[in-house]
Specification:
The chain is mostly beta strands and 124 residues long. It has no helices and eleven strands. Strands 2, 4, 5, 6, 9, 10 and 11 form a seven-stranded mixed beta sheet that branches.
């Protein structure tokens, strides 16, 4: 069973950058596509980005594609989310997730394994 652990969340000023990491263990990492979702305070879960198993294709929430970049290192069993020009509205708990049977990579239902989340707070 693939286990995921996020890291890298912290308090950052608006306009700053941050890279989140999600380390996997206990499964064949390279066979999973991976996604990042976030849960802003008082709101519902939002799709952020996804990357295919080989890393050959990436997908983004349209409003975030100019500032966020998802990547993976299959040799390190890790997926990353680079976030630039952060805004207060990016404040959220960020979760990585993995799946192998896609119903659409932006949908939470496509993911079977989830991390515990890491908190990003962007101050104005």
């Amino acid at each position: 069973q693939l286990q995921l652990v996020e890291s890298g969340g912290r308090l950052v000023q608006a306009g700053g950058s941050l890279t989140l990491a999600c380390a996997a263990s206990g499964g064949t990492f390279s066979s999973y596509y991976l996604g990042w979702f976030r849960l802003p305070p008082g709101k519902g879960r939002e799709f952020v980005a996804a990357i295919t198993a080989t890393g050959g294709d990436t997908y983004y929430e349209v409003s975030l594609r100019d500032r966020f970049t998802v990547s993976r290192d299959n040799a390190k069993n890790t997926v990353y989310l680079q976030m630039n020009n952060l805004k207060p509205e990016d404040t959220a708990d960020y979760y990585c997730a993995a799946g192998r049977n896609s119903f659409g990579l932006s949908g939470a239902a496509s993911y079977t394994n989830w991390g515990q989340g890491t908190r990003v707070t962007v101050s104005s």
